[in-house]
Automatic annotation (TrEMBL):
<keyword id="KW-0560">Oxidoreductase</keyword>
<dbReference type="InterPro" id="IPR018170">
    <property type="entry name" value="Aldo/ket_reductase_CS"/>
</dbReference>
<comment type="similarity">
    <text>Belongs to the aldo/keto reductase family.</text>
</comment>
<feature type="domain" description="NADP-dependent oxidoreductase">
    <location>
        <begin position="13"/>
        <end position="250"/>
    </location>
</feature>
<protein>
    <submittedName>
        <fullName>Aldo/keto reductase</fullName>
    </submittedName>
</protein>
<keyword id="KW-0521">NADP</keyword>
<dbReference type="InterPro" id="IPR023210">
    <property type="entry name" value="NADP_OxRdtase_dom"/>
</dbReference>
<dbReference type="Pfam" id="PF00248">
    <property type="entry name" value="Aldo_ket_red"/>
</dbReference>
<dbReference type="InterPro" id="IPR036812">
    <property type="entry name" value="NAD(P)_OxRdtase_dom_sf"/>
</dbReference>
<dbReference type="InterPro" id="IPR020471">
    <property type="entry name" value="AKR"/>
</dbReference>
Length: 264
């Protein structure tokens, strides 16, 4: 699984979604992350198709993720939702399919359906999103397949260290949504000082911090210069002291919903 991808959350215009995805793939991205609830799977699929034609890449060169929405959770409805996502994307399979949120009383039946999809070879890997430690512990009691990924909100103000340690122990990859805290740390003195030291942008420093901690990132952007910038992360390293300084910014602060208290 690539360590850097493009997220398309809140890109509701199909044409903009398509152009963003095409631009990302053109500029070296291989991971694209969407979801049924984003309502842009069609545009994402069009962008993938255009990019493959433009670049000469093959479908298997890309890693495409989507997610089953809360209202579609349950065994039969998950199987149906998966096919609907495939149809909208115009693909024959997904590389990764995630449970979007841990809906109480439903996520275990949803997981059984996802295991079935995996066993039938319809998806290459399955995982979860927004699961806390206790959700994972509950799921693992009955799971035949361990989730390969847990995609959660994570950034320097929400480092999720206990969840990260639990995930590493169970060989579950952590993937960060909102890895840049929606730009909320671009003016932070610690971040800007480190960025100046490396002649990089604050966004690049934050994304590099994630990568050095073994976390996958899917920053969202619709502008090609920013997409290029967000992917340009492999020609510098943060020191132990710089990593520790960024770690110290944690305040357990969420910008999105709390996985233990959501009503959608």
């Amino acid at each position: 699984m690539p360590t850097v991808g493009l997220g398309v959350f809140r890109v509701e215009d199909q044409a903009i979604a398509a152009s963003s995805v095409q631009s990302a793939i053109r500029n070296g991205y291989r991971l694209i992350d969407t979801a049924a609830i984003y309502q842009n799977e069609q545009g994402t699929g069009e962008g993938i198709k255009a990019a493959l034609k433009e670049t000469g890449l093959k479908r298997e060169d890309l890693f495409i993720t989507s997610k089953v929405w809360n209202a579609d959770q349950g065994y039969e409805s998950t199987l149906k939702a998966y096919q609907e996502s495939l149809d909208k994307l115009g693909l024959d399979y997904l590389d990764l399919y995630l449970i979007h949120w841990p809906v109480a009383g439903k996520y275990k039946d949803t997981w059984r359906a996802m295991e079935q999809l995996y066993k039938e070879g319809k998806v290459r890997a399955i995982g979860v999103s927004n699961f806390q430690i206790h959700h994972l512990e509950d799921l693992l009691k009955d799971a035949e397949v361990v989730p390969v990924v847990n995609q959660v909100e994570r950034h320097p103000r929400l480092t999720q260290e206990p969840l990260k340690a639990f995930s590493e122990h169970h060989k579950i990859l952590l993937e960060a949504w909102a890895p840049l805290m929606v730009g909320g740390l671009f003016d932070n003195e610690t971040i800007t000082t480190i960025a100046e030291n490396h002649q990089k942008s604050p966004a690049q420093v934050i994304l590099r911090w994630h990568l050095q901690e073994g976390v996958i990132v899917i920053p969202k952007s619709t502008k090609e210069p920013r997409i290029i910038e967000n992917g340009d992360l492999f020609d510098f390293d943060l020191s132990k002291e710089e990593m520790a300084a960024i770690d110290a910014l944690n305040q357990d602060h969420r910008t999105g919903p709390d996985p233990d208290n959501f009503d959608f």
